[in-house]
UniProtKB/TrEMBL annotation:
Stored PROSITE patterns: KINESIN_MOTOR_2 (PS50067)
Protein name listed in UniProt: Kinesin motor domain-containing protein
Family to which this protein belongs: Belongs to the TRAFAC class myosin-kinesin ATPase superfamily. Kinesin family. KIN-10 subfamily.
Entry-linked PANTHER family: KINESIN-LIKE PROTEIN KIN-10C, KINESIN-RELATED
Domain Kinesin motor: 9-322
Residues where ATP binds: G98, A99, R100, C101, S102, G103, K104, T105
Organism for this UniProt entry: Microthlaspi erraticum
Annotated InterPro entries: Kinesin-like_fam, Kinesin_motor_dom, Kinesin_motor_dom_sf, P-loop_NTPase, RuvA_2-like
BP terms from Gene Ontology: microtubule-based movement
Keyword ATP-binding: yes
Amino acid sequence: METKSTTKAVRVVARVRPSTDPAVEASSRSISVHKPNGDESQTVSISFGAQFAGSKDSYKLDYCYEENETTGLILTKEIKPLISTVFEGKDTNVIALGARCSGKTHLIQGSEREHGLAVLTMAEILSMAEERGDSVLVSIYEVSQETVYDILGQEKRVVSVLEGAQGKIQLKGLSKVPVKSLSEFQNIYFGLKKFQKLTSDPPQKSHRGVMIHVTTGNVDSRSLGRMNFLDMAGYEDSRKQNSDVAPLEITRINKSIYALQNVMYALNANESHVPYRESKLTRMLKDCFRGCNKTLLITCLPREYSQDSFYMLNLASRICLGGNRAMANTTKKNNGLARSISSSSAAQGRPTPLAVSANPKKQTGLRENVTEKKTKIITATSAIKGRKLFGEANVSVKSKVNSKKIEGKPKTEGKPKIEGKPKTEGKAKIEGKAKTALKKKISTTKAVLNVHTSSSEEEVCSSFIVTESQSFIVTDSQCSVVEEEKSTVAFSSTAVAVEPVTDSQSSVVEEESSALAFSSTAVAVEPVTYGEEIFPGANSCHDASADRAEIVEKDDISSVTVEDSTLVNEGENLVKANNSLLFNETASPPLSLRLQELSNTLKSICKPSTQFSAPEKYQTSLSKLHMEEVSELSGITSEAVHSVELKTPEKSMPSNIACSPWKTFSAHSTKLKKSAVGEYLKFLNTAEKEDLKKLKGIGEKRATYIVELREESPEPFKTLDDLKDIGLSAKQIKGLLKKEMGDIF
Ligand SMILES: Nc1ncnc2c1ncn2[C@@H]1O[C@H](COP(=O)(O)OP(=O)(O)OP(=O)(O)O)[C@@H](O)[C@H]1O
């Protein structure tokens, strides 16, 4: 009895672990599995008892193995069909994930008495290899704290995950040990525990992987396929008080679980972008996941209800649904917003990881939002949609044309209002602080407000960038939104950038009272500086659970009443106009010029009397107008505004540093170095291929590879270390930079 072949990249099943405590009352053995066609069911529904808050709904998975079904049956039904593909040259993956103590290790490794899937599979592979005259090798590794360790060597040693010129992953330092018999494998596999106990490492949660390699002929021959078994560390809510694991460690583990789930979702939903780079684990297994390779995801569920298991089931169901939807409509590609998750119960109301990037570094500042990344400057349509999404949560958005703007009068009275529900304290706080920030004219031109509300019921994280000016257009809402029943809104946003509109433009949209309804118990609004992580609430968002959820198409989101449709059109036109201005004039200026700008900035800092102006060619019309407006509002000279605009915003220099010329100089040099590196990376992330080739050390091959990397991940180079992905050593990277920077002076 073998499972039906499926075209889905990821098959999602569950495995129910029997209750380990016989004293547990029958009522708490709450899981119930509905198989409409018995063992032949294509989809099954799993639910917990109605007595558990928010868990009355059922979740669909591809199949569920109950406690009376053996590991051998899972092997026969699920894994045997995959084994043959390994001999055809494909990679396959079997991943066990779930809450802590849900039976993952028991399922994958088992015990010497009761074999787990990896051992049973190895027996099958060994016998097939023997028949065919092929060889089998094994690697065993652990991933903890974003580091991969080889645990087959004499001592635990770090494995480097390198990406070759063709994008192929190389695991440098991962041992491959030939295996000839099952007992040999068992000695290796079960011997690991002893090895672990001998080490003085503090106990850490980790993911453990067993990679079985099949090669044609002898062990040194060409590799055929690989079979990966992954025993993921257990998910656990980091807010638990009684855990024996440190909250930071839990958060880290959960983040990598989310990253894996995001990859599984993207693969199953056939998305064009798969976020492999969000964790070391997914990055190292990229080659095993992609293409037509198959993955079996087994969600381990203890029979007793637990919030953590419930959450894992919820996410597994979503991955499964994504696959069904992709199969039903293969032509329709998902994008970021389409991945928004709608959760219809308010049982927990936390944003889900599928909507949240596992990489908090991705949060970006205003400069990047507005001037650099075309992908982050969204169209008016999505800006308007962003409002609609807010509107879903009882948000009232009123806008009107501001004729004053067209006449070019200085703006003094309008202020952005961010209002909560009348009952919340957050409303007053947000409004009050926004006003204060505006009055104080933070950073001369912009006030950045970071909004993070959190409660046991919902968490809201977002950043707002607000200008002093009275007129606003929302230009970036690259946010995934989780909608809740009961009028709660939970969203994770990189930035909602609000840009000033200038008099020369034909129409202006003013947010007269754009209100975000936060049904929260605590709201904190803090001004933050650009250089810092704008999104401190990201982690708490990651650590989220949600009740019943379904994937919605972005167009499925029901809209709010837009009070003035002409206004919306004007808003769209205006943002389009702005964007075109931005794009046309800022397209990939040569790096040397941008570095030159930085150098000039440094000079202008060192000599306050010499005002700096960026080369006319690289000023956008919008930025010029912006500067003029700012200068009009603040009374400072437009040259000074240029200077403010072009330098990387940072905290002001402490006075004790300023009083020593050497310290001042060295602080500025460090700043320049940081900025130059930043510019260099930005250039790599954005420049056209031909421009890339102008860099020293970047030829046709590397430029092509960089462009390919960018197709996979919009911003592949976040640190200089990422240049190793294009085959450069640390020494080469340093050499390149030296050459590039040396030319400026
Ligand atoms: N199918 C099963 N039958 C009997 N006992 C089981 C089964 N699955 C798990 N157990 C028992 O449950 C306990 C926890 O199992 P296991 O260690 O596999 O959980 P885990 O999910 O790997 O835990 P962690 O999250 O800490 O890695 C063990 O004592 C194991 O023997």
